[in-house]
Amino acid sequence: MSAFRSKDSSLPAAARYTASLRNSRKSRLPAGVIVPQPPSVWPAENVALLERYLVWLVEDGAGQSCMAMYYLPMAGHVLGLNLKPYSQLDLAADLEQAMAYVDAKRPSPRWALLCRNALHRFRRFLRQERGLVEVAFSEPDVTRYQVGLPAWLVAQLTQYQHLRQANWRPRRHHQSILGFWSKHSRLFGWLFAQADIADLTDIQRAHIFAYMDERLAAGANPKTINQELRAFQACLRFLQERDFRIPQALLTIAGLKEAACLPRFLTDEQVNRLRTDLEQRVREATIPVQERNALLDRAAFYLLWQGGLRLGDVEELGLADLNLAQRQVMVRQGKGLKDRVVYLTETAVSALQAYLAVRGDGPGDLVFLYRHQPLDKDFLRGRLKAAGERTGVKVTPHQLRHTFATQLVNAGCRITTIQALLGHQRLNTTMTYARVHDHTVAADYCKAMATIEKRLELNGSLPAEPAAAAGD
After folding, report:
1. Can 335 be counted among the known catalytic residues?
2. How many C-beta atoms surround the C-beta of residue 225 within 10 A?
């Protein structure tokens, strides 16, 4: 296989493969090896498929030289060695024929690896063509959290996990299971390792206090220790409902006093620096891949900031959830599996429309894709962090949600409206998100006092001037 000249980059995919096949080194092939046939003898739908694959590769960010040397040639080998409609291809055996053809030329180990990777990429494209979801969610290995725990407790915690995971986001399944076992097994593990515990009734309050002291001495944050305590007590209540005898005194242990930290939000100047950076990257994009990535970053930014969406809400947003004509987004099964409607500004709608125009295809109907695949859990967090580093603003996706709430409350929006937009069940939760600026407090105070003084003046109730002292 040989690279195409730059002037051939505009040729159709079939012409590119024909040139590659003509220039390939067939002299290295042993006698009797079957060679791929050119596109001129392929089924018409296979020729069209190769053209779609070329578009898909460009959208996927593949470089011209990589497409020329192995991405298109390996796809062409598959189709040229299997002269049947692509819908009938066996994604294992038929694709391996192309690799066997390459191996027959005795390539270098590196070249063989590159061709193998190209074959995997073509397989991913074919799976997408068939509507098969590429992303699989496997059960993580949690045995390290179960070391030292009795078998009966592991069985009960597993049942508790299955009960809890009904409310977890499907795409966060793997991560949530690890988090569950990390939190819910730590205190139990310490008790069975450090205390003489044979049964739950052997656990005393003194054991729990000793654990908390040890964690504090090790430098653990009080908030973290409280989370572990609450997870432990939640397990005890779960076991109590299943007729295990639980010392009631363990359920009444209060947590440690935590520092009253308010959520961090961005100033208007910081938000503007981020927005300016993202808008500038859209304007300065020179190739399709750069433009699509810049448009994705900008659209996600506006949903996080002006829509107040959680990171998971953005990752799992579906095309059917968009009602851009009405400037609305339906967040389905958000945190706690609750649905809510979010309203968008014209700016956010325009950013979404611009991204959707270059989004490309992928498995399922998720709005945001990267290289034709659903976003990994840390993708947007990393992109936003990079924007923060470029602008000198330390920012996270959830900080934009805090900023959304804070800016609304300081613009005079009712707190109950903000509660509905954020999807909070309790108003107190909203109050912790929405921070009133000092200048807003001062303005409200001055406005209120002016009203009070005006009312007193109208009622003739202003205090009289003090009488002059005798002799003054």
Report:
1. yes
2. 22
